[in-house]
Design a protein that fits this description.
mainly alpha; 0% strand; single chain; 153 residues; Arc Repressor Mutant, subunit A; 9 helices
């Protein structure tokens, strides 16, 4: 049996995806391509959605920023997630310039939530905490700040 053409138009499919959650343009384009739409239909659907402001990479990046901060992620992890979703680098830079998050305080809050006031009494425990904070997307200076602060209390 040969592959069937999709039952709904590319526009309808795109609107369906966007009605569930925001998407980056690249992500939506890939989903439509996977469903079997031709490139011209996909481009037309994406242009249509952008004309009505249903598809907006800047809005999507802002949502990803807020979501990442709420999840306890650092700047590096959020940027990586945006890149993976296909958000353009200039939009990522703009979102981070507009954001006034203190990444050092974000790191401290994450460390405090995860580890409480427990002691870092062994090198192994210190390494474990560093790895956790790196995985969350904090840089070396932010991690040092967050973990040293916990030691002082």
């Amino acid at each position: 049996m040969k592959k069937q053409t999709p039952k709904q138009s590319a526009k309808e499919a795109a609107i369906g995806y966007l009605s569930r959650r925001d998407h980056a343009e690249k992500e939506l384009r890939q989903k439509l391509k996977t469903r079997g739409y031709c490139e011209s239909d996909i481009t037309e659907a994406i242009d249509f959605c952008q004309d009505y402001n249903w598809l907006d990479d800047a809005r999507y990046a802002g949502m990803m920023m807020r979501s990442g901060i709420a999840k306890g992620w650092g700047e590096l992890r959020i940027k990586q997630e945006m890149k993976m979703k296909g958000v353009h680098g200039t939009i990522v830079s703009q979102i981070f310039e507009e954001n006034d998050t203190d990444w050092y305080e974000q790191a401290r809050d994450v460390a405090r939530r995860k580890f409480g006031n427990s002691e870092m009494d062994t090198p192994k425990e210190k390494a474990r905490r560093f790895r956790f904070m790196q995985y969350r997307g904090f840089d070396f200076e932010q991690i040092k700040y967050a973990l040293d602060t916990d030691d002082d209390e």
